[in-house]
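A reminder from the course coordinator: this example appears on the midterm review sheet, so study it carefully.

Given structure:
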């Protein structure tokens, strides 16, 4: 895949970039490793000041980088600006909290004595150079939620970004440079996917984090496993959105639309499967379908646009195949199900609602990356849980209910990294984020995320006498 900016709204290639060669890759690896040896000894106060300056710069750049993001991957401009603001918020959160999250831990004195020690503690030390392989759908946020904690912890980072967002990738390197981080703290590698294995196998790279597809996750995990290196993987999702009889139906339907079409539906944590109790199914389906049908599809630079184009022509083709397969196997199209008429340029697709989904359909088993929702009718809590868990993914989940017993049941039984009640899944720097099953392993954000790439070191002191 060429490293290029191709406007998804027009199909026009705006800029192309030559990949860096082996010599430049080696120089950047060497710089990252050398910088780590000194950067790891800086204080939390020093790192926080640097990250705070990066946040301030990002706030000032929000309009410009927002337009770049929109032109590279098609996100509506208002959402691109919001992504920049979210990144700045996360930077400030880690700048404020990293020191306490990585503070020394002191076991109970009775346990220390029982170990034969006079005293003992656990200290957190950074691992080193971390390779980040990141996707295009949230081209700032996916990177910052790794970079902010990693840099605050004293690690250095190498970014291999998706090939269709090269300008955003280069912006991030420049952002941290302008903020005053030492050379080598954070570098972008404009390389193809074929170069990842060699970089990950390099002895100077300590660990890797990847957000992306299952195949990409398997490839990185297998290489890292062979090299015995730590990885964190955030892969696909097919998140359920469960609606029970006690729910606020109007609120659930309104939120369901946002949960499905945020980022034009190209989000791992977007709600994709809408599992509705039979007592409220018809009412919810009507509210939801009417709201999906009313969305404005158009130029993502237009402030009035709700749904922009898919990021690539192949992405739209993949989505069309899933919808067409479902229809061939008996699914009903309640709205959408086609390219918008009159739009010959760009990779647009209408917001779509499908009902009558069965296990024979690919869309039941595979992740839908676009503005397509599937509706399921269930008889009770047991069936709702069974349908929600009938997926190889387990990233997050959404449940609408006012019943305390149901809340406990869904919390206990849903197979997911998160359960969001009476709202929609969202990531926040103070809350751990990640999945189970084929959605990956490890956690980002919060204290869990910053400790993923740390060496928890036991320090044991024998008796003084």
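Designed residues:
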């Amino acid at each position: 895949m060429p490293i290029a900016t191709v406007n998804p709204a027009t199909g026009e290639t705006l800029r192309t970039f030559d990949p860096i060669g082996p010599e430049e890759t080696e120089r950047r690896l060497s710089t990252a490793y050398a910088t780590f040896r000194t950067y790891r000894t800086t204080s939390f106060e020093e790192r926080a000041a640097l990250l705070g300056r990066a946040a301030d710069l990002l706030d000032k750049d929000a309009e410009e980088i927002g337009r770049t993001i929109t032109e590279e991957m098609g996100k509506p401009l208002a959402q691109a600006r919001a992504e920049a603001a979210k990144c700045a918020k996360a930077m400030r959160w880690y700048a404020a909290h990293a020191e306490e999250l990585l503070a020394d831990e002191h076991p109970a004195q009775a346990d220390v004595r029982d170990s034969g020690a006079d005293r003992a503690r656990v200290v957190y030390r950074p691992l080193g150079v971390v390779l980040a392989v990141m996707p295009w759908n949230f081209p700032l946020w996916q990177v910052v939620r790794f970079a902010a904690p990693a840099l605050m912890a004293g690690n250095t980072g190498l970014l291999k970004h998706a090939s269709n967002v090269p300008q955003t990738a280069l912006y991030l390197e420049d952002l941290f440079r302008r903020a005053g981080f030492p050379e080598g703290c954070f570098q972008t590698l404009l390389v193809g996917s074929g170069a990842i294995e060699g970089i990950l196998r390099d002895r100077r790279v300590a660990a890797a984090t990847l957000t992306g597809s299952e195949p990409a996750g398997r490839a990185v995990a297998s290489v890292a496993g062979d090299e015995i290196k730590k990885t964190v993987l955030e892969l696909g999702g097919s998140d359920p959105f469960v609606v029970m009889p006690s729910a606020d139906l109007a609120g659930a339907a309104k939120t369901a639309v946002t949960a499905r079409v945020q980022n034009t539906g190209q989000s791992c944590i977007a709600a994709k499967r809408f599992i509705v109790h039979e007592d409220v199914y018809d009412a919810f389906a009507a509210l939801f379908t009417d709201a999906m049908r009313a969305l404005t599809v158009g130029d993502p630079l237009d402030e009035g646009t709700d749904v922009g184009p898919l990021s690539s022509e192949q992405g739209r083709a993949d989505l069309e195949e899933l919808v067409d397969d479902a229809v061939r196997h008996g699914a009903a199209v309640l709205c959408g199900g086609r390219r918008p008429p009159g739009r010959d340029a760009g990779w647009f697709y209408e917001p779509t609602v499908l009902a009558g989904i069965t296990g024979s359909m690919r869309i039941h088993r595979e992740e839908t990356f676009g503005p397509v929702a599937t509706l399921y009718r269930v008889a009770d809590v047991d069936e709702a849980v069974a349908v929600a868990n009938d997926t190889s993914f387990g990233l997050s989940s959404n449940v609408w209910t006012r019943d305390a017993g149901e809340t406990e049941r869904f919390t206990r039984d849903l197979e997911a990294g998160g359960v969001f009640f009476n709202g929609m899944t969202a990531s926040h720097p103070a809350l751990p984020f990640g999945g189970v099953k084929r959605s990956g392993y490890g956690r980002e954000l919060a204290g869990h995320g910053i400790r993923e790439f740390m060496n928890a070191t036991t320090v044991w002191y024998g008796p003084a006498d």
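The chain has a mean pLDDT of 97. The CA atoms of residues 50 and 180 lie 6 Å apart.
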